[in-house]
Amino acid sequence: MFRAVAEHESFTRAADELSLAQPPISRGVADLEKHLGVRLFDRSRRRIRLTAAGRAVLPDVLEILRRIDGLAEAAGRREEGTLIGVHGQLDPAVLVAATRDIRLGGAVPRFLPTESAALDDLIESGDVDAGLDVRGLGSALPTQRRRQSSDLVVDLVVASTRFSGTEGTIGAADLRGMPPGMGFGRLADRETIAILPEDAGLLHDSGLLTPLVARGIHLGQLRVTDSEFDAVTHVFAHGSVLLCTAMTARAHSLPYRGLRDVELARRVEVIGSGSCDLLDEMESPEVRSAIAAIIGARSQELSAVAPVRDAYADERLYPRP
After folding, report:
1. DSSP 3-state assignment of 289?
2. Which of 59, 129, 197, 318 has its CA 20 to 30 A from that of 74?
């Protein structure tokens, strides 16, 4: 009402624009003046004019109305595509390419990087429609009803400045960092294997540790870092190796190799909601393939682990091209 009177400089013409009678317009403006404690219009003349206070308030009123008018547009954008929160690294180039030809709810889905701890609250509040949580090694199985384990996993690789490129694989025994036959007590001669904080569960999961120990890895080699930054810094400063995802290695320009004889992979949990049953949507091969590409995952059924070889080569002595 204030905006209309200010623009027309007339209560009558403002009433015509708003399809209201003049008295409600007068009362509405009077209520606003009472609320603000100032007079907004000079009514002493034939034409209604803004006071100094009215001129000061008008820009803010117009901005408030603009934002109110934009709510419908914002709501429309919100409905354009399913919003999926993702705990895990996203590669923008891969994300754009993978989502180009898929649809959820008739629109291209959108993916939002999100902390794992916030996913459930965001879905509960309706801020996101579904979630993908890439869980660290040794993490507990889901207990919440809406969380479900998928058969997608994200493999960990071995990253090091000593490698060149990303081709080839490395055996877990190569991480012992010493030629065969050397004593197990000489930890100083052994490879330091940096582990990201989210994968600290590795140290408490016998199923994951046993294959490593069987190949000569000493528990003292495994060092859980305080942060990803700390881990990468240690790799660059000391030439150690880092267990991480391929996306993490690429993000820090670290050459990496896959592990050929042990499986160290993060489990992917799918979180659905009343507006989106993401696990059901992933029954579509196109959607499943796109999501796997976006988070750098593979089907657990397609194991990359090969039989253990007896041959051992120190990667530092025999780097692969």
Report:
1. helix
2. 59
DSSP 307: P
**Confidence class for position 79, pLDDT limits 50, 70, 90:** low
Rounded (10°) CA dihedral 72, 73, 76, 80: -170
Rg, Å, the chain Cα set = 30
The Cα 245–Cα 107 span in angstroms is 30
**Is the full-model pTM beyond 0.70?**
no
Distances (CA, A) of 156 to 68, 159, 201: 48, 9, 14
- For residues 276 and 82, the answer to whether their CB atoms sit within 8 Å is yes
Q: What length is written for the chain?
A: 321
Band of residue 199 on the pLDDT scale cut at 50, 70, 90: very high
CB 260 within 8 A of CB 157: no
Decide: 268 and 84 in contact? Cβ < 8 Å. no
Q: Is residue 110 within a helix (H) or strand (E), and if so which, with residue range? A: strand 110-113
Query: What pLDDT shows up at residue 231?
Result: 92
| Residues 271 and 131: beta-carbon distance below 8 Å | yes
**Do the beta carbons of residue 295 and residue 88 sit within 8 Å?**
yes
Paired with 113 in beta bridges are: 86
* Closest of 134, 191, 198, 187 to residue 160, by C-alpha: 191
